[in-house]
Amino acid sequence: QQAINMKEALQNDEPDKIGALLDFGFTHKKRMAEGITNQLIEDIYHTAREAGATGGKISGAGGGGFMTFYCPKETKTQVERAVVKYGGHGQPFRFTKDAMTSWTENIQP
Q: Which end of the chain has fewer beta carbons closer than 10 Å to its terminal beta carbon, N or C?
């Protein structure tokens, strides 16, 4: 249901709803299984939320590896600065009408 709600938010040009949906999903995921999070992840999540992120998602096996946050444009810089102390950084992305696109680089020595 969460994916459907996110799709509808994007289709209706309401991207700011995504943060609340991510926060809802993260909160419920933590209740379903142990090991989803730890104190460091909680600290990073709280710091990003305090800086202006409206929600986030953790990805990766065994309690993390990658965190995604949604924040309104006006808080993007503050959120990026807030997670730097944990070794985090911003990663540019954009929504497209063509769904997800992925690629790999074939770099040869």
A: C
Strands 55-59 and 66-70: antiparallel
The tokens of 97 are what? Answer: 């009408």
- Inside any domain, residue 106: no
Question: How far from 23 is each of 45, 69, 103, CA to CA, in Å?
Answer: 10, 9, 28
State how far the Cα of 55 lies from the Cα of 49, in Å rounded to an integer.
7
The per-residue pLDDT for range 8-39, each reduced to its tens digit, is 988 898 888 999 999 999 888 888 877 788 89
At 29, which CATH number?
3.30.70.890
Report pTM: 0.78
Cβ–Cβ under 8 Å, residues 19 and 51: no
Segment (H or E) for 66: strand 66-70
Asked if residue 97 belongs to a domain, the reply is no
